[in-house]
Amino acid sequence: MKWTALLFALLVAGAAHAIEPKEMLTDPALEARARDIGRELACVVCQGENIDESGAEIAADMRTLVRQRIVAGESNTQIMAYMVSRYGDYVRLNPRFMPRTYLLWFGPLMILLVGGFVVARRLRREPAEAVPPLTPEEQAALANIHREGNAP
Amino acid sequence: MAEATPKRRPARWPYLLPLVFIAVLGVVFGKRLADVEKGADPKAIPTVLLNTPAPMLDLPALPNFGDDVTSADLKGRVTLVNFFGSWCVACVAEHPVLMEIARSGEIPIIGVDWRDTPEQGAAWIRRYGNPYTKIGQDPKSRTAIDFGVVAAPESFLIDASGVIRYKQAGIITREDWRDKIRPLIAQLKQ
Fold it and tell me: What's domain A2-94's superfamily in CATH?
């Protein structure tokens, strides 16, 4: 119980630094769009955080700018394009599909395929060996164990 | 156990695959670590604005420190645009170098007082001295984000046609000025 309370307190503490009520747009549809964009944008001074989660001041200013641009009538794509034109592909949390990122996208699949190929080859070549039957001595030993249980 | 047919030994090479994989990762990570050891900033984001026209400048002046800052200030001369703030500790460390650059008269420095209040920005300048020809205020990061600024101090060397030619993320040291920025200015002035 104490643990869950502590966990809850930590979660709330983290959230308190991210999006603040005064930043939010009153129109829920526009605010939802701002959240969609915010989740896609990397905080430029943090590691592995999006701007919605981040407590950094520059992230707060980026959230505000995203909302200003939404209100000004820009599309999500336009806003992302603007941010990428300022900070490069780094700000995209969802990496684009392009030659530089092929390894990123295909790497895991390639490793899986190579591994699967190796495993498949071995399985085909050596079918699982049948376990040889127990020798009479082993059977006697086993019967002995069954009879005496685990007693020393 | 008795075997009727001689069994083929399973190939050993697949066991080497993970080792090869780890070795490749080792080389990649090792190179990066070596770069960082040599002074590369692991948090640096490669700038995309190099050799592109500087974003528009249209900033209200820090009161009592000259006129508003506009894009016209960049036209026809090589300028250094420096993002700073009174809250920025590293800016204090950079400041003496900016003062020296200002005294040399080689290049006008335009200051952008970033995420600051006019009172605190002005107090900071009064306390440490003013290396800037003009100081604009950017309290909401509009211009900072336009320039792709990540953290203060950050400086941009802009040529006479208004194109960004160099970006210094972090403090300009005397060595940076002597070895990189000053030679580049001489080149751009030709």
Answer: Cytochrome C biogenesis protein (1.10.8.640)
Map tokens 């080859």 to a residue.
Answer: A121
Q: How far apart are CA B71 and CA B53, in angstroms?
A: 11
Measured CA distances, B166 to A82, A90, A113 (Å): 21, 19, 45
Dump pLDDT digits (tens) for B104-125.
999 999 999 999 999 999 999 9
Gap between the Cα atoms of B56 and A111, Å rounded: 47
Q: Compute the average pLDDT of residues B148-155.
A: 94
The domains of chain A are located at: 2-94, 100-148
From CA A134, how far away is CA A142, in angstroms rounded? Answer: 10
Of B7, B45, B141, the CB nearest to A87: B45
Q: Which residue has the higher pLDDT, A63 or A19?
A: A63
What fold does the segment set B58-189 form as a domain? Glutaredoxin (3.40.30)
Mutation target to probe the A interface, by most A beta carbons within 10 A, among B9, B47, B115, B145 is B145
ipTM field: 0.82
- CA nearest neighbour of B138 among B118, B164, B161: B118
